[in-house]
Design brief:
By secondary structure, this protein is of the alpha/beta class. The chain is built from twelve helices and 23 strands. It has helices spanning about 15-25, 30-50, 65-75, 85-90, 110-115, 125-140, 180-185, 210-230, 255-275, 285-290, 325-330, 420, and strands at about 1-5, 10, 15, 25-30, 55-60, 75-80, 100, 120-125, 145-150, 155, 160-165, 175, 195-200, 235-240, 280-285, 295-305, 310-315, 335, 345-350, 360-370, 375-380, 400-405, 410-415. Strand 8, helix 6 (about 125-140) and strand 9 form a beta-alpha-beta unit. About 45% of the residues are buried. Bound molecules: ligand LLP. Its cofactor is pyridoxal 5'-phosphate.
């Protein structure tokens, strides 16, 4: 965080008060330089460690045409999970060979779209999907690359991890009960399906590297078994995303490069141990690319003091633009962007404007005593799963998104209009 001469919050080299005035609030603001820096932290580490790799941006964290153009410029690959995300990637002219399709419940239409556009690979998740895919590739006589999504039995939590005895996840094929092997054996004979390798994703907002290391170890036990019994050697190992970021002072993530480094070292170690070639290593960070590169600007509207209890500062957004506090009890930090010179001495809670008690953005944040209607509140680290999980509850239009870079700002997603809110409504007479 930095200030400029006027004591306004400076973000991405720009005055946030000016931005709020120009584009209105609520407003999502992204520092594009920071997005690039986060992407480079991963890409450069893989390059230095001299392993073949792909860093696929998990676009569910924040998908828009402009964002995917930046991802493309940074040489990232792309993880999409729906026709909508794939469509956005195509609109951004994203190189199709670097797009990977995910999903635990892909429809025939989604698979068909992926095949038509010849995307890089499909991450196969279940037996029903295998039958859909087999029908399509046989009909089209078209080759497709797939990864097998497996559940390695590591359940990662925010700050630690536990090893689950039995898998209980809607995603992927279990390693422990032989379903992953059954899936492999079903796919291998199909000449149109190239099983490039394995995929696993152990969770999200993970700080400790131990869970990732354990996942690699688990995968290698399986890979060794499959090599011994079926002579199958994966070319690709996709270790998913989930690298944690800092939301509040309590969060202590590792530097992004460290996550990549630990993964590569463990893969090399395991490959050496089992005498297997080092595969191409793919990862899928979403939050780690965009999370701390985005902030949200709100206008302070009403303030309600309940003496001796709490002060509610209501802003002109809420769970419609950031559902994470209501959904996950996620914590954020904020500042009054036009009063950085004043000491934050007053404890308030930041409320949204939805008709819902749970619509709170922050409980107990320190702000200047003088906080008042018209101030601009900036909430940090809202770049991941903010806009992408936004909604129109109470018929609030979704906010605009602005990119800032090199002292310039650019509108990249327009503010939703009231007309667009009703454009799909039909009258009933
Ligand atoms: N790869 C796969 C297969 C995933 O399921 C996910 C996230 C990612 C990569 C990216 O994870 P990341 O690096 O962003 O942690 N809405 C939640 C997060 C759900 C993540 C779901 N999958 C949130 O707001 O925290």
């Amino acid at each position: 965080m930095s200030t400029n001469k006027s004591n306004h919050l400076h973000f991405g080299g720009m005055d946030m008060l000016e931005l709020a005035q120009t584009y209105g609030t609520p407003l999502y603001v992204y520092d594009v330089h920071k997005i690039r820096e986060n992407a480079k932290a991963f890409v450069d580490t893989f390059k230095q460690l001299e392993v073949p790799f792909q860093v696929a941006y998990a676009s569910k964290a924040f998908s828009s045409v402009a964002m995917l153009q930046v991802a493309k410029q940074e040489g990232l690959s792309l993880d999409v999970v729906s026709q909508g995300e794939l469509y956005t990637a195509l609109q951004a002219d994203f190189p199709v060979e670097r797009i990977h399709l995910h999903g635990n419940n892909k429809s025939a239409e989604e698979l068909d779209m992926a095949l038509k556009h010849k995307i890089g690979c499909i991450v196969v998740d279940n037996f029903y999907e295998i039958s859909l895919l087999e029908n399509l590739v046989n009909e089209y006589q078209q080759a497709v690359n797939v990864l097998l999504r497996v559940t390695p039995g590591i359940e990662a939590h925010t700050h630690d991890y536990i090893l689950t005895g039995q898998e209980d996840s809607k995603f992927g094929f279990d390693l422990s009960n032989g379903q992953a092997e059954q899936a492999l054996l079903q796919l291998l004979p199909n000449e149109n399906i190239n099983v490039m390798g394995l995929h696993c994703h152990i969770g999200s907002q993970i700080f400790e590297t131990t869970g990732f290391v354990m996942a690699v170890q688990k995968l290698y036990q399986t890979m060794n078994h499959w090599y011994q019994t079926h002579h199958y050697i994966p070319e690709v190992l996709n270790l998913g995303g989930g690298f944690g970021i800092k939301y509040t002072e309590e969060d202590e993530p590792k530097p992004l490069a460290q996550y990549a480094e630990v993964l590569v070292q463990e893969v090399k170690k395991q490959a050496g141990h089992f005498g297997l070639p080092v595969p191409e290593i793919w990862i899928e960070p979403g939050r780690a690319i965009v999370g701390d590169a985005g902030i949200t600007l709100y206008s302070v509207v009403s303030i309600k003091e309940i003496p001796g209890v709490r002060t509610y500062v209501s802003v002109n957004g809420g769970m419609t633009d950031n559902i994470r506090p209501a959904l996950y009890n996620a914590k954020y930090q904020a500042v009054v962007a036009n009063k950085l010179h004043e000491a934050p001495t007053k404890t308030v809670s930041v409320a949204g404007k939805c008709c819902e008690t749970g619509d709170m953005l922050i409980w107990d944040e320190k702000v200047p005593d003088s906080i008042e209607a018209g101030d601009i509140l900036a909430i940090f680290s809202t770049g991941a799963y903010g806009y992408s999980m936004s909604n129109n509850y109470n018929r609030f239009p979704k906010p605009a998104v602005v990119f800032v870079e090199n002292g310039q700002s650019q509108l990249v997603v327009k503010r939703e209009s009231y007309q667009s809110l009703t454009q799909n409504d039909l009258s009933y007479e």
